[in-house]
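Hi both,

Apologies for the delay on this - the queue was longer than expected. I finally got the flavin mononucleotide-bound model through. Below you'll find the protein sequence and the ligand SMILES exactly as submitted, and right after that the structure tokens for the full complex including the ligand.
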Amino acid sequence: MKDLRSALELFKEANEVQVIKKEVDWKYELAGVYKKLDGKKVVYFEKVKGYDVSVLSGMLSNRRFLSLLLGVDPSDPMNIIHKLEEAYQRDVLPKKVSSGPCKENIVTGDKTDILKYLPVIHAAYGDAGRYITGGITITKDPETGWCNFSVHRICVVGKNKALLHIDKNRRLGMMLEKAAKMGKDLEIAVAIGVHPLLLLAATSKVQLKSDKFGLAGSFLGEPVELVKAETVDLYVPAHSEFVLEGKLTSRKFEMEGPFQEYPGTYSVVSPAPIFYVSAITFRNNPIYYAIIGGTESHILRGIQGEYAIYKAARAVSPIVKKVYLTPGSLCRHHAIIQIKKEHPDHEGLQRNIMYAVLGAMREVDVVIVVDDDVDIYDLEDVEWAIATRFDAEKDLLIFGRARSHEIIPITEEGIRTKIGIDATVPFDKRDKFKRAEFYDAKLEDYL
Ligand SMILES: Cc1cc2nc3c(=O)[nH]c(=O)nc-3n(C[C@H](O)[C@H](O)[C@H](O)COP(=O)(O)O)c2cc1C
């Protein structure tokens, strides 16, 4: 069975795990150490002050790690997108089982005390407190019964009380609104320490075949085993390290934040529903998983974003070859699309593609289209294309005031003007733009 522990073994075999043996404080110190290794290693903290639980982070902090988890060759980043494309075609439905490792310890009633069992970390100096960041939040639509899971930060504010942050246009927010209209609260389970590909499924941005458990099974190549929760009518991954169960208030809110958000800036304080925890279940010798601001969160959202824009752009035309959401734009806001014009009738399609990309992912604010002789993963090469092939009067497209992400400080509540940069060569002028070519000398033969 693929779970967090089997993923850890995979990373150990690949020599990608940095074990920190020295005891660290959950307050500031753990995150400070992690930040030095962010994007470079999976980090395993053996000892956290005041706890017998180890902490793990960084399993999705670069494309190489994701390639390893998906079993694809890391030398071409497009292999991940093609693997996702294949996985989205089918569903591997979850399997319900009667029990599982997450039931090895069960705490309910008065004994429910989040911070007694979970070494929840306080990451940045300006964060409002201790946040759970690496769990999947499982809920059911109160009208249809359809099950979904996503990633939401959760600020622990009491023994069995936490605040859960919901951005605009989230399925969880929509379910909570439905519950409010029905005069009910929403049952919720948070599974922490799941196989990292479940976190990848959680951030899916396109239409699903059944639900995200079916997609996660397809990513894993085997069904996710689900077990019934103790105090709510929900099913949770049986191999989770920890599960928190409870209710989310639909009509009562408290102020949550600030929190260091994905752009590296702090969120504004805003009302959040209250998560009253009714049970905690966990494995023996559990491992707590934390996502600590930065690349892991960027990669998680960025890869699904790349898949969504690739799908939309390819629907315009198969002249689309590669797509990339740049790291400088947090793998979210600047898209580079590589195309290959092979016929005069392909001229102009680059602009249709821009519209499709902007429509497929609301957070994309800049789309740059280049030809297939430009390496989209080399931003210097992309800049070269803009320097030599782009004329602002003719090739700059402005898309006025559409929705982006409200967390980006320059937006007005999420509204922002977007641009398209057409840095492709006009098909009938290809000769003028031909790149100089040189003999490919093997330097070792000459030195
Ligand atoms: C590390 C991480 C943290 C996230 N935190 C939040 C959050 O606090 N609130 C939120 O609304 N979305 C958050 N997201 C984004 C959603 O989980 C993500 O966009 C997901 O696709 C939403 O699922 P849905 O389309 O089913 O609503 C986070 C994503 C990641 C990867």
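Main takeaway for now: Residues 295-316 form the longest helix (22 residues).

I'll put the files on the shared drive as well.

H.
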